[in-house]
Write a structure and sequence with these properties.
438 residues; Beta-Lactamase; Heat Shock Protein 90; 3 domains; 5-stranded antiparallel sheet; 8 helices; 13 strands; 53% helix; disordered C terminus
């Protein structure tokens, strides 16, 4: 949810709660005020009536009071029994004029006329009061709705204008490519925080681009400057092995040659990791996964035959993916090479492609370290001295930087590596319900 939407949602929820709470509260308060005013009118009228009733001389005069005195309906009748305390309450009764039940406020009091007790009932219709309360409540509701709606619209309009530079900056950052000269066209803003943000982002993108260029130049220079003397050193050692050397000297030279080969391989691998980390593999193309896998299998088949390892392929689906061809080649090559290297002789290595998933499984003993460490740099089996311990680290780094999911599992004396291409949105080429086994 956008920040603007979240703030508007919070404001709207608050406005709705204010309406739900204040509208009935306003109705109750106005109703209470009107009822209190009517009660005061009734009590005042009662006092006046008691004073006037004391002037009555005969029974016929009493009947004159059983009439309407303004807005107050008066009912006077003899009362038998002990006099009670005055009471005031609200009730409903039938109105013969309007022919419907109407609300009333009633004051019942007791008085004496001469020596006889009488019950005096005074009632006031609440119909007009209720109409007034409903009109006031409706007016208050319309005012509140208009006010709060206006505040929401004004807040949305001001927030949208205020946050426009921020969203423009965000769009510019999405288009930023570290390998290209940064040319961010950021909108100026009167908000100090946004101006500070734009200035920091501009500085940061320039620094990142410069760091990328420096790292790229260092990698290229290191690749050139280190590989050349290593190649010369290895060539000289090979030439010296062809001369007349004693057995002890030949063993020393062979040891130096092996160390040089491992050093050369380690140098190439570390440079490759550096290139991957600095995102120097930016070119992409549609790569056919089955075709690439088949080509690599034919390349590694001789190495597998040397250990009498059987390579089995199960291609249930085929798909293409927009990816850097070099990186995908390195990824599959490292996983294939790792499986063959760590498989015992006369075992089986299975490569399977199904539903956007690339898997390779090989037999072998469990690793001498935790499964979670299998992708760590320089983590390797001590029994295999020729391994650099970087092959799986490179595969993991390629997947992490490209949005792929690389998983490892050891089960039933078998190592299983899976590459999930689902998040990379592969393009399906063909699908066959029958498995294709080689």
């Amino acid at each position: 949810m956008r920040l603007l939407s979240r703030s508007l949602l919070s404001f709207s929820i608050y406005s709705g709660l204010v309406l739900l709470i204040l509208t009935p509260v306003f109705y109750l308060v106005i109703n209470r005020i009107i009822i209190k005013d009517i009660d005061e009118t009734l009590f005042s009228h009662r006092k006046e009536m008691r004073d006037r009733l004391q002037k009555i001389k005969s029974e016929s005069d009493i009947k004159l009071w059983e009439d309407i005195d303004g807005d107050v309906v008066i009912k006077l009748e003899p009362f038998k029994g002990r006099l009670r305390l005055d009471s005031i309450f609200s009730t409903t009764s039938y109105n013969s004029f309007s022919r419907k039940m109407e609300p009333y406020r009633v004051l019942v009091s007791f008085t004496t006329i001469g020596d006889s007790p009488y019950r005096l009932e005074e009632r006031v219709s609440l119909v007009e009061s209720e109409d007034l309360i409903e009109a006031l409540s409706a007016t208050q509701l319309v005012v509140l709705v208009t006010l709060l709606s206006g505040l929401v619209v004004i807040n949305w309009w001001i927030s949208r204008r205020t946050w426009r530079p921020f969203y423009h900056t965000l769009d510019e950052l999405k288009k930023f490519e570290i390998d290209k000269t940064p040319n961010l066209q950021l909108l100026p803003s009167t908000i100090k925080e946004f101006e500070d943000l734009n200035r920091v982002i501009t500085q940061l993108t320039q620094q990142n681009h410069e760091a990328y260029i420096n790292q790229k130049e260092f990698t290229e220079n290191a690749a050139h400057e280190m590989q050349t003397p290593l190649a010369i050193f290895q060539t000289k050692l090979e030439l010296m092995l062809q001369t007349n050397l004693s057995e002890s000297q030949a063993q020393i030279m062979e040891s130096l040659l092996g160390a040089t080969s491992r050093l050369t391989k380690l140098n190439e691998t570390l440079l490759l990791l550096s290139k991957i980390d600095s995102h120097q593999f930016v070119e992409t193309e549609m790569v056919d996964v089955v075709r690439l896998t088949s080509r690599l299998i034919s390349f590694y088949k001789e190495k597998a035959n040397a250990k009498t390892i059987t390579l089995i392929t199960i291609f249930e689906n085929n798909f293409s993916i927009l990816f850097n061809a070099t990186l995908l080649d390195i990824l599959f090559s490292n996983l294939l090479s790792n499986a063959i290297r760590h498989s015992p002789a006369q075992s089986i290595v299975t490569i399977q492609i199904k539903s956007d998933l690339w898997q390779i499984q090989n037999e072998g003993a469990p690793m001498p370290f935790a499964s979670a460490q299998v992708f760590d740099r320089f983590q390797k089996d001590p029994a295999n001295s020729l391994s650099t311990g970087l092959g799986l680290a490179i595969a993991k780094r390629i997947c992490d930087n490209s949005g792929l999911d690389l998983r490892y599992m050891f089960e039933n004396a078998s190592h299983l590596f899976s590459v999930d291409f689902a998040r990379a949105k592969p393009v399906r080429n063909w699908q066959d319900d029958d498995e294709i086994c080689v």
